[in-house]
């Protein structure tokens, strides 16, 4: 919402895809929801959504029950029957995992440049990004969630520029799910579709 460079790149990507599939008339871009194929081509948007979830995961912490005695890599003994809690929110902000720029919003950390544009790069360590859990417990609805997020984000961003309401204090509230204590009030400025070309 406060990163015009990223927003402009998302708009560029969406309009490029929609020009290819629906033609040059911007009115046709908003007549119907994205198709699966159109959504699949929105790689930079997916990277932006992944980066958002890295910094603001829907579920900020999780826990697991230990079924058999185990020893963690640092030598900590974890007996069967214990529960282990981990902070997904904190993991997304750790320098040891994400580097010195871990607090910066950088969708580019999720993509590589390819001949046709961007290619989404899943972290090589499957347990680095755990907003959808990881390993055999990865959320079965992850791809559907990305599809829905892309569809909603595209529909909103093609029509409006969003900005935080002046004076509104954005305060996160930790709970089972991460949400804003006082909501997230935004101002909507109609986006001339011709300006999105």
Topology at a glance:
Elements: H1 4-22, H2 26-29, H3 36-40, H4 43-55, E1 61-65, E2 70-71, E3 77-78, E4 83-87, H5 88-91, H6 95-98, E5 111-114, E6 117-120, H7 142-159, E7 160-164, E8 172-173, E9 179-180, E10 186-190
Antiparallel strand pairs: 1-4, 2-3, 5-6, 7-10, 8-9
Helix pairs in contact: 1-4
Descriptive report:
The protein has 197 residues and is α+β, with helices and mostly antiparallel strands. The protein has one domain (4-196): Orthogonal Bundle (Cytochrome p450), CATH 1.10.630.10. The chain contains seven helices and ten strands. It has a two-stranded antiparallel sheet. A hairpin with a 5-residue loop joins β8 and β9 (179-180). α1 packs antiparallel against α4 (43-55). The longest helix is centred in the N-terminal third of the chain and has 19 residues, at 4-22. The chain is globular, with a radius of gyration of 19 Å. The two termini are 20 Å apart.
List low-confidence stretches. none
| Percent in strands | 15-25%
Instruction: Quote the CATH topology.
Output: Cytochrome p450
Give the mean pLDDT. Answer: 92
Q: How large is the radius of gyration?
A: 19 Å
Question: Under the CATH scheme, which architecture would be assigned?
Answer: Orthogonal Bundle
Number of DSSP-assigned strands: 10
Supply the CATH class.
Mainly Alpha
Q: What pattern of helices and strands is seen along the backbone?
A: HHHHEEEEHHEEHEEEE
* Overall tally of domains: 1
Shape: globular
Structural class of the secondary structure composition? alpha+beta
Q: Which percent bin holds the helix content? A: 25-40%
């Amino acid at each position: 919402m406060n990163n015009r460079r990223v927003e402009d790149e998302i708009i560029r990507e969406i309009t490029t895809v929609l020009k290819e599939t629906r033609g040059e008339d911007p009115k046709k871009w908003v007549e119907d929801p994205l198709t699966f194929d159109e959504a699949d081509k929105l790689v930079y948007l997916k990277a932006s959504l992944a980066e958002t979830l890295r910094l603001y995961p829907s579920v900020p912490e999780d826990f697991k029950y230990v079924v058999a005695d185990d020893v963690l890599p640092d030598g900590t003994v974890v007996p069967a029957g214990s529960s282990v809690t981990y902070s997904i929110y904190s993991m997304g902000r750790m320098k040891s995992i994400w580097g010195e720029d871990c607090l910066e919003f950088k969708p580019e950390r999720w993509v590589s440049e390819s001949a046709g544009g961007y290619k989404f790069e899943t972290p090589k360590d499957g347990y680095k990004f755990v907003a959808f859990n990881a390993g055999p417990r990865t959320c079965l609805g992850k791809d559907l969630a990305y599809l829905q997020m892309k569809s909603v984000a595209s529909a909103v961003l093609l029509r409006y520029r969003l900005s935080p309401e002046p004076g509104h204090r954005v305060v996160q509230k930790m709970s089972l799910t991460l949400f804003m204590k006082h909501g997230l009030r935004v101002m909507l400025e109609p986006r001339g579709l011709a300006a999105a070309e």
